[in-house]
Design a protein that fits this description.
Helix content: 25-40%
Radius of gyration: 20 Å
CATH superfamily of the largest domain: NADH Oxidase
Strand content: 15-25%
Structural class: alpha+beta
Number of domains: 2
Order of helices and strands: HEHEEHEEHHEHHEHEHHEHE
Mean pLDDT: 89
Length: 332
């Protein structure tokens, strides 16, 4: 009898208390999101954290299928798992749970069977990660670094491939510029995008984080000029591009790709690199399909492109993007 009692005590999984769950959600909400829309909602129900897409924050003109919205939620889901591990907790994730409403993307049990050390450096990493759109240096990211980032992303169930050949990079730059031209003449997209720049409130992109654009012929951006002094090309000298995707262009794949993006971004930040998403080529369906065919050779469906490079040493840090209050995104 005593032996059985001992065995049960050894395997008992301690559930995370409310204060830990609140802290984890707060850290998860530091994740990157399209135009900093932060399109996620968290709920504590039946002992689990439930992640839902906030469809009120979907971009109907730029993201009618919800791909970028789901990628953003996937990044928040990874951030939560990363934060839990850093704080010494385990997670069990059920993605797209059966029987749940379509907006519910995941349920997460947070538990542990033994006390673990806190990895404070990883918590700092979550707070350090940002989107720095300033021009990268001309120093290229070594091939082995790109391989490591891709391998890390693949562990989350996505596909990842660095575009390193001159022919692939040239083709990708051409298609990216074509997509940007297409978006520049779409009035609905431009108006929608503009609504998320320099907003009053805890979301959107502050002008202080958007580079100025003194020579639009040489430094094209999907956003209007900001207040951050700099110039850069769509794909510039030292940049390397990583394509992320999956077997299908669907919600399950997007969610996994969002998790992979977060993993890649955090590990790049840890190594001193900078990451900038390139979603505009994917938002134009004909361009997305052409990149999948001619650049990726049809090996997987493209969901997102990421520019990876080095920022100049000594550059000043950027202000943090605003975040929605926890009370708006977390229902207990």
């Amino acid at each position: 009898m005593s032996s059985r009692t001992t065995q049960r005590s050894r395997t008992y999984a301690e559930p995370a208390p409310p204060a830990v769950l609140e802290r984890l959600v707060s850290l998860a909400c530091l994740a990157p999101s399209v135009h900093n829309t932060q399109p996620w909602l968290w709920r504590h129900a039946d002992g689990a954290l439930e992640l839902s897409a906030d469809l009120r924050r979907q971009l109907p003109a730029e993201d009618p299928r919800g791909r970028n919205l789901t990628l953003s939620c996937g990044a928040a889901l990874h951030h939560l798992q990363f934060a839990a591990r850093a704080l010494g907790w385990d997670t069990t994730v059920e993605r797209l749970p059966l029987g749940a409403p379509e907006t519910v993307l995941a349920r997460v049990l947070v538990h542990r069977t033994a006390r673990q050390a806190v990895a404070r450096g990883d918590i700092d990493l979550l707070r350090t990660r940002c989107t720095d759109r300033r021009r990268f240096t001309a120093w290229p990211v070594p091939a082995d670094r790109l391989t490591e980032l891709c391998h890390g992303a693949v562990r989350w169930g996505a596909r990842a491939e660095a575009v390193t050949s001159d022919a692939g990079r040239f083709r990708l730059e051409l298609l990216a510029n074509q997509a940007l031209t297409s978006l520049e003449i779409d009035g609905r997209r431009l108006l929608e995008q503009d609504r998320w720049i320099d907003r009053d409130g805890p979301d959107g992109i502050p002008l202080e984080l958007l580079p100025d654009d003194p020579d639009p012929l040489q430094a094209r951006s999907r956003f209007r000029p900001g207040l951050l002094e700099d110039t850069r090309l769509v794909i510039h000298g030292g940049d390397r591009v990583i394509a992320l995707g999956g077997g299908y262009d669907d919600v399950a794949g997007w969610l996994r790709t969002g998790e992979a993006m977060s993993d890649l971004w955090l590990e790049a930040t840890r190594a001193g690199m900078s990451v900038v998403p390139m979603s505009q080529p994917v938002e134009v369906e004909s361009t997305r399909q052409e990149i999948t065919r001619s650049v990726l050779g049809g090996r997987f469906e493209l969901h997102l492109l990421l520019r990876v490079g080095w920022q100049a040493i000594g550059r000043s840090g950027l202000p943090r993007t605003p975040r929605r209050p926890l009370a708006e995104v977390f229902r207990r």
